[in-house]
Design brief:
This protein is an alpha/beta fold. It has a single domain (4-206), classed as Rossmann fold, CATH 3.40.50. The chain is built from six helices and 13 strands. It has helices at residues 10-20, 26-44, 82-89, 138-149, 164-173, 201-206, and strands spanning 4-6, 50-56, 61-67, 72-78, 96-97, 99-104, 111-117, 126-130, 133-134, 154-162, 178-184, 187-188, 194-195. The strands form three sheets. Strands 1, 4, 5, 6, 7, 8, 9, 10 and 11 form a nine-stranded mixed beta sheet that branches. Helix 4 (138-149) links the parallel strand 9 and strand 10. Helix 1 packs antiparallel against helix 2. The longest helix has 19 residues, at 26-44. The radius of gyration is 18 Å and the shape is globular. The N and C termini lie far apart (38 Å). The mean pLDDT is 96. The chain binds 1-O-pyrophosphono-5-O-phosphono-alpha-D-ribofuranose and uracil. Uracil (URA) is lined by residues 133, 135, 192-194, 197, 200-202. Keywords: Allosteric enzyme, Glycosyltransferase, GTP-binding, Magnesium, Nucleotide-binding, Transferase. Catalyzes the conversion of uracil and 5-phospho-alpha-D-ribose 1-diphosphate (PRPP) to UMP and diphosphate. Pfam families: UPRTase.
């Protein structure tokens, strides 16, 4: 069964509180989402494999470590997931970026896929699917399904705010996928919004309504 990790680092929690604040405008919302994504990327890459090398320092030779060159892929769920990409790429700039376009039908809350573009070597990459919100879980479940259908075998899911319903949906549909979140909120309301949440992530990121 997939594991759930809540990143309770003080910097992540502090910035997340500012993101939640209804008085935080688009510019700050974007900047904070970017910063939180960088901090979460630091945590999520903890288990990247290293290999031994020798490096010449000004003083002597040293036995040291470098990243073993694992192939990574970031896949934002459009549109709100885009707000997390640059923050992650600051730490892992060589990662390839795929895209899955989904929107939630406002009536049925079911995800509707409208775009998919992934790196060609899907089978060889470790993917991190990103989206600020995990609400009913419909979008994340469908995005992960979309990657698997195209051959992806190693997938993590990372978001800012989740609720129990969304976490359960991923666990049930994709028990092989670990989930990384900054906060696990209380519940969904009747409109499918996370309570207390942060509102509509896409609209707040892009200044639309
Ligand atoms: C939001 C959010 C997730 C989805 C979460 O996107 O960014 O993708 O809802 O809800 P779910 O877990 O119930 O599927 P939205 O559909 O509003 O599209 P947008 O990113 O284009 O704003
Ligand atoms: N999508 C959002 O952007 N916010 C929510 O609370 C739920 C889904």
């Amino acid at each position: 069964m997939g594991k759930v990790y809540v990143f309770d680092h003080p910097l992540i929690q502090h910035k997340l509180t500012m993101v939640r604040d209804v008085n935080t405008g688009t510019k700050e919302f974007r900047e904070l989402t970017d910063e939180i994504s960088t901090l979460m990327a630091f945590e999520i890459t903890r288990d990247l494999p290293l290999e031994d090398v020798t490096v010449q320092t000004p003083v002597s030779e040293a036995s040291a470590k470098v990243l073993a060159g694992k192939k990574l892929g970031i896949v934002p769920i459009l549109r709100a997931g885009l707000g997390m990409v640059d923050g992650i790429l600051k730490l892992i700039p060589a990662a390839k970026v795929g895209h899955v376009g989904l929107y939630r039908d406002p009536e049925t809350l079911q995800p509707v896929e409208y775009y998919v573009k992934l790196p060609s070597d899907v089978e060889e990459r470790d993917f991190i699917v990103v989206d600020p919100m995990l609400a009913t879980g419909g979008s994340a479940v469908e995005a992960i399904h979309s990657l698997k259908k195209r051959g992806a075998v190693s997938i993590k899911f990372m978001c800012l705010v989740a609720c129990p319903e969304g976490v359960e949906a991923i666990k049930e549909a994709h028990p092989d996928v670990d989930i990384y979140i900054a906060a696990l909120d209380e519940k969904l309301n009747d409109h499918g919004y996370i309570v207390p949440g942060l509102g509509d992530a896409g609209d707040r990121l892009f200044g639309t309504k």
